Please model this.
Amino acid sequence: MLILVQSGRLSPAVAFSPTIKMPPVNSLGLRHSPVAVTNESEFLELNSGESLIRALLKLPQVCIRNPTSVSQKLESMINGGKNTLQIISDFDYTLSKITGSNGERLSTTHGVFDDNAKRIDPELGKKFEDLRAKFYPIEFSPNLSISEKIPFMEEWWRTSHEYILQSKFTKQQVRQFVDTSRKQNRIQLRDGVPAFLLALECHRIPLVLFSAGIGNVIEIYLDMELHKVPKNIHLISNMMRFDQQDVVASFSEPLIHTFCKNSSVIRDEHDFFHHIANRTHVLLLGDSLGDSHMDVGVERSETTIKIGFYNGNTQDTNLLEHYLEGYDIVLLQDDTMTVPQMILDEIVKEENSD
Model:
């Protein structure tokens, strides 16, 4: 059952904000029978998970299909404490924003090359634009299955990487590209991300960044934003390899694209996941349907809460329904880290109060 929270009322629908235009409830195939929450005796003795779920459901951007299940998971995580927790997160459009203050679409880590190529080599920039025009609609097509999309995504990623290799960019150029994109606000972290990342480092909670983007760009960007790459971060991504002249010579294998964040690309990560096997509580953050499977490398998982940033059209009820199937918590058009931070704060607070 889906939960709607609006002005203190519950109904079998989807949580939405008065500022977000949502589809009619019946278009989701759900009954619309609002019931006011008037029986406060139900909440006289709330555990930590129940208290947190109530706080989350007051936020207008929060959608939760099964609040009872999520409440139980939250209680388990809170009781387990920070020493049993690990975070697995995507980067592009998860830790970073998808749109700027004027509504313009921002860049991904691959997009850093697209943006700068237009400036230094218009012909190369046109090649990147053509790739996006061809493959982006396929990535989000509702008429193709994931298995049907995969060959196209592999072609898109490999062709893009080949263009980068042919251009023989140097380490210094790549760093300049990231710096330019950052100064032009083409990549922006969600509000609250720096504090969230530094809190994870402070509490020694492992953060696995599982990205289909370009890992070198992530490292450079974080170093510029935070003045360091936090030591608790473990990066799984497409990495550029440079030759002795610091010219990009190859990309790491296996290729990681949107729909292959699974066991097929983490075969070299066994030792790492074994090292943190005692961290059986997983908080997963993603923005695509493929991201919801990023926890495949976890050796032992007792509790996983999956948070999905829904950056799509809120009128697309079919896509939204898929997100609600794949994620425990779906956040609508949310440019902040408010919800993950609330969960982290509760876990850390309980630990500190012991």
